[in-house]
Amino acid sequence: MSETVHFDVDGPVCVITIDRPEVRNAVDRPTALLLADAFRRFEVDDDLAVAVLTGAEGTFCAGADLKGVSDGRGNRIEDDMSVDGPMGPSRIKFSKPTIAAVEGFAVAGGLELAMLCDLRVAADNAVFGVFCRRWGVPLIDGGTVRLSRMLGHSHALDLILSGRGVSGDEARTMGLANRLTPPGDALAGALELARKLASFPQRCMRSDRQSSYEQWDLSMAEAMANETQLGLSVIKSGETLAGATRFADGEGRHGQF
């Protein structure tokens, strides 16, 4: 794959790295296409259970490369939702967990990429923010939607309207960061979490993840029914019986994982 996006495999986990440190890993159109391709590669590979997205050399992503617009590398903006988003993978629907490993800045479109992921492991000095507020550049890679749904409307509007940067314990309290690490350890922390997720029975975990996302389009009664149908599919697969048998044989006692 191109040198601006790396795809590395470590057992059931893949690491997708944006590598444009000279522009704080800002994403131009070619890089956006490569990012989308990398995530599609993860999604279709049955041997991969979790993807980790990160940035090279201490920065997650500073958003879209606005300078690229002037020389023909501007991000593609289409209202056809069947094609890739401006930052690349923002419109892809995943069936498997994704984790962002955040060092430095995750701002503007970079924040949208971080929020695309299910979970975010961040250095305690990492900065999240809608910095594009200053330049009149809108959030069009799911930022207004995912921030509102994942953080709650009040926290989301604080970020969306003010454009301020958030880090550390405030980022964790908001839900921007699920786990905090010392600076330089975000990728290691994300990989540790990814391997843990990959070790669980996969059909059940993916089913519960699917139910959690699909509920947004459903009424309470419909969401409960959908959860039941997805759960029954897992039970019928035999995965639940296999897990119950392992427990009966003595595995996992006293809360051990």
Describe the structure.
- The chain is α/β, with parallel strands linked by helices and 257 residues long.
- It is built from 9 helices and 8 strands.
- A 6-stranded mixed β-sheet has the order 1-2-3-4-6-8, sandwiched between helices. The protein has a two-stranded parallel sheet with strand order 5-7.
- α2 packs across α3 (143-151), α3 packs antiparallel against α4 (153-162) and α7 (202-214) runs antiparallel to α8.
In short:
The protein has 257 residues and is an alpha/beta fold. Helices cover 41% and strands 14% of the residues.
The structural class is alpha/beta
- Beta content: 5-15%
What separation lies between the terminal Cα atoms?
36 Å
Query: Tell me about the biggest sheet?
Result: 6 strands, mixed
Helical fraction equals 40-55%
Strand order of the largest sheet: 1-2-3-4-6-8
How many alpha or pi helices? Answer: 9
Using only C-alpha atoms, the radius of gyration works out to 19 Å
Question: How confident is the prediction overall: mean pLDDT?
Answer: 94
Number of strands: 8
Q: What is the helix/strand order? A: EEHEEEHEEHHHEHHHH
Low-confidence stretches: none
| Principal-axis shape | globular
